[in-house]
Amino acid sequence: MKYNSFLKLILFGFICAFIATSCVKEGPIGPEGAAGKDGVNGKDGKDANETCIMCHNPKSVEIVTTQYELSKHKHGETAFDQAGNTTCAPCHASEGFKHVIKNNTPATFTLNTSTNRYVNNYITTSSTAFGDIVCSTCHSSIHATYTSADLPALTTTSAVPLTMWGGTKTVNIAADGGSSNLCIRCHQPRPQTNLQTGNFQDYAAVAANPKGIAYDANNNTSTSNIIRPSYRMHIHYGSVGAIYAGVGGVEFAGSLPYTSSAHPNVASCKDCHMGTVVGRAGGHTFTAKGNLTTCNASGCHQTPVTSTTPNLWVNPRNEIKGLLDALAAKLVVDGVEIL
Questions:
Q1: Dihedral, CA atoms, 276, 277, 278, 281, nearest 10 degrees?
Q2: Backbone phi, then psi, for 195, in 5-degree steps?
Q3: Which of 31, 97, 230, 243 has the fewest CB atoms in 10 Å of its CB?
Q4: CA 304 to CA 269: how far, in whole Å?
Q5: What is the Cβ-side half-sphere exposure of residue 288, based on CA atoms within 13 angstroms?
Q6: Global pTM value
Q7: Which residues, including other chains, have CB under 8 Å from residue 144's CB and lie 6 or more apart?
Q8: Residue 243 is inside which H or E element, if any?
Q9: Shortest CA distance to 215 belongs to which of 207, 206, 122?
Q10: What is the mean pLDDT of each run of 10 residues along the chain (339 residues)?
């Protein structure tokens, strides 16, 4: 009897639970509430994937960096050795170069009244005298907009004051928007300085009196030693800019007039040194050696120029070499060849 009563109790519980759940019925959905206040519209973000690949792709930045591995600008030994040297950094260190361009540092010489000697003003600061030559050294707007529009902008295309002449003479190659001026800013002769005053050499006086003694090793006095030869006081491996422009040479009077090449009026440094890559020349290797395709690609020479072309390659090179040999023969002092 008790067992039957227990079963009835369980059954009664199930019935009550069923009735309770069946009574819960969902009513209709009520109306929506009032719309909340709109937030302030924000600017659309940049799609990094889309903008980056405009430049960072195998045909653009990636191939340029590969070419740059062959460039002497990439090696960086001098930038490391000359870090902190405020006089060398304007050309040998990235931050130094950007500093003098940003501040329009003049190439003039100024008298220091404390030492009574002249100093060259074309220097950087000790805090910017460092850094290897990198992309941003020459391209001033990299990552400004993160688009391909950043690359064409150059750090400078302004006329170049020649430090050899204390800024009294300038080079300005107009071809290709003045891009050559960026190169010539560093690829120019360093000044010869007067041992007595520290001022840059009076080249007009040298041309007027070519037989005057600049340095007499056998009479080492303050009056005879005006200019002392050293490997830094002459062209310092940078004469190419002045020679190409036909500006800054010491012009001695003679029977022939001074003339300049037609090249700077129609071609830029880029036309020869950044042509189509052939071997390890062209592009961002900045090397023109052995790559004569640029002479034809620029549209200057209708007849292809090769290493065997007589009038445009072989003969001019032989003529210049003969003149240099003749000059070297004259520049022999006590058996020492100066050139």
A1: 110
A2: -65, -30
A3: 31
A4: 19
A5: 12
A6: 0.79
A7: 150, 153
A8: helix 240-245
A9: 206
A10: 55 58 60 76 71 86 94 87 93 96 96 94 96 94 86 94 94 94 94 86 84 72 67 67 92 88 89 90 92 75 86 92 89 69
